[in-house]
Q: What sequence folds into this?
């Protein structure tokens, strides 16, 4: 990197708009959406989609609810042309969906494009030519006047051929390509020259697309450019102002949102932001940003996982795990404090204590877009008791008492740290089972029987101690009290039951019960044990033995 980049690079000049209005506006409704996945997105793929992939993608876009879909550049190749014709001739386009095609301002390309649209019910013909100083100087070597002539000539060529689309409802679109790098006054001049040819009216408007073809400034500058056009161009009421942002500076989404505040009506973009260089606008993110503020975007992303699967299968691209809303890990917390906050926030929401969604760290409810709560928390060595408890609750219905959460959390973290990776819910349960439920040494239950007389219980427990038979007999006001009394007659450190809870695992006659018991020794040491059985009394006895076995294991580990 240069020590003084100002010798090579310069800041983009701001727009003179001292009374800009967009900072004080609030979005209240969604824009018109146009997917350019099959054109702009497809041309950015190392291996473009084949016909079957494009057909699947088109159908997915229709199911999502897009009413305007740019399907390609039909004059670019026979494949693109044939795809257009297949959509039309096989009746694959719903009556309310506009088929959009892109074309440069060149006669033979326009001719081929018109041919590709014959028989379509609704068509958007998207004309463009570059207007920025760099394009004028480097690529075309043309003056401003010559650039305007190119645009006007292309607009006339299209107008001269519209009668060949009899029966097709046509909407015309013009893009001064690289608008964001063009002087706003000149972009306005070019657009008005095209308007003079097409003669839009409020009843028959045209689309004026203002592409941020390459991000060259902060998104507030793009918003100023859009507002300047909206306020200064002639016959604004006859225009549908459209945005088409890219992501070179990583602010394509912000530029679009600010551009909508600045007065735009329409947005072009792709699913997951697929596009040239750093990508196009991700329509999903903008739409769900609106959704999170209570505005339905008019697009259906209620099964986002399925949409992602189609996208990855058709494009060969992958959605990054941290991609907003869509990525595998975006509704996941590894941090213990985050996990605890999410767990408590979800509990508050599920109990109906909040009218509006306000769960820490989750901008929207994952269930609204087909994600599941079990995806919210994943366990690795950074996880805390809240995440561990949440995973066991939501996946297996195991509701750990709070003190047991505190005890098991560090145990789970140490084991995950030893494994050296994130663990699945099944692996976490296995860690819990091994630590608590499967502890059968030195004490193992063989048989447990009780007799009750006037509320007084006598128990007889047949156990194995290091494989050797042992009988424990005791009395008390309940089975557990009798068992504790019986152990007091053996050479076992005295203990008492400090905490007890239990619940069913599942439902039905064969459902198992799980018991959680904390024992306490005279020196203040506590140890939890867990037992599982179809008989709750037996599950409780197993939990006591689990706690005793874990106490022995802990003592041995300290020696």
A:
């Amino acid at each position: 990197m240069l020590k003084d980049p100002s010798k090579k690079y310069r800041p983009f000049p701001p727009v003179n708009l001292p009374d800009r209005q967009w900072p004080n506006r609030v979005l209240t409704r969604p824009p018109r959406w146009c997917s350019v996945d099959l054109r702009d997105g497809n041309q950015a793929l190392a291996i473009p989609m084949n016909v079957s992939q494009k057909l699947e993608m088109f159908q997915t876009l229709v199911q999502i609810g897009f009413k305007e879909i740019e399907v390609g550049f039909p004059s670019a190749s026979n494949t693109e042309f044939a795809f257009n014709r297949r959509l039309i001739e096989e009746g694959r386009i719903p009556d309310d969906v506009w088929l959009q095609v892109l074309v440069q301002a060149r006669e033979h390309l326009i001719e081929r494009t018109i041919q590709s649209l014959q028989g379509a019910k609704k068509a958007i013909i998207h004309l463009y030519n570059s207007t920025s100083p760099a394009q004028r100087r480097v690529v075309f070597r043309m003056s401003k006047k010559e650039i305007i002539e190119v645009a006007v000539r292309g607009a006339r060529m299209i107008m001269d051929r519209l009668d060949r689309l009899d029966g097709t409802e046509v909407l015309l679109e013009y893009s001064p390509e690289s608008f964001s790098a063009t002087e706003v006054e000149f972009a306005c001049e070019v657009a008005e020259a095209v308007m003079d040819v097409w003669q839009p009216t409020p009843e028959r408007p045209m689309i004026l697309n203002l592409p941020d073809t390459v991000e060259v400034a902060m998104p507030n500058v793009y918003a100023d450019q859009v507002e300047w056009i909206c306020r200064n161009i002639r016959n604004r009421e006859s225009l549908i102002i459209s945005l088409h942002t890219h992501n070179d500076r990583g602010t394509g989404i912000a530029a679009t949102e600010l551009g909508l505040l600045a007065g735009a009506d329409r947005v072009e973009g792709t699913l997951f932001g697929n596009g040239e260089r750093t990508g196009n606008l991700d329509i999903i993110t903008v739409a769900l940003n609106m959704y999170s503020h209570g505005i339905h975007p008019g697009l259906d992303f209620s099964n986002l996982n399925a949409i992602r699967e189609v996208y990855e299968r058709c494009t060969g691209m992958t959605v990054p795990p941290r991609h907003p809303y869509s990525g595998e890990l975006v509704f996941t917390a590894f941090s213990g404090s985050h996990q605890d906050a999410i767990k408590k926030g979800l509990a508050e929401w599920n109990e109906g204590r909040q009218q509006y969604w306000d769960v820490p760290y989750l901008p929207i409810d994952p269930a609204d877009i087909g994600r599941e709560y079990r995806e919210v928390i994943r366990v690795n060595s950074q996880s805390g008791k809240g995440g561990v408890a949440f995973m066991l609750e939501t996946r297996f219905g195991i509701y750990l008492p709070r003190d047991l959460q505190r005890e098991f959390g560090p145990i789970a973290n140490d084991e995950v740290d030893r494994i050296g990776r994130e663990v699945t819910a099944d692996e976490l349960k296995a860690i819990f089972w091994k630590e608590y439920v499967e502890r059968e040494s030195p004490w193992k239950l063989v048989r447990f029987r009780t007799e009750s007389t006037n509320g007084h219980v006598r128990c007889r427990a047949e156990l194995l101690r290091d494989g050797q038979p042992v009988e424990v007999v005791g009395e008390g006001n309940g089975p557990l009290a009798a068992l504790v009394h019986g152990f007091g007659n053996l050479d076992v450190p005295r203990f008492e039951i400090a905490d007890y809870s239990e619940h069913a695992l599942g439902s039905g006659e064969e459902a198992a019960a799980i018991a959680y018991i904390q024992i306490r020794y005279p020196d203040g040491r506590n140890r939890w044990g867990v037992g599982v059985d179809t008989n709750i009394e037996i599950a409780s006895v197993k939990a006591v033995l689990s706690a005793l076995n874990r106490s022995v294991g802990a003592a041995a580990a300290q020696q």
User: Anything to note?
Assistant: The longest strand covers residues 443-453.
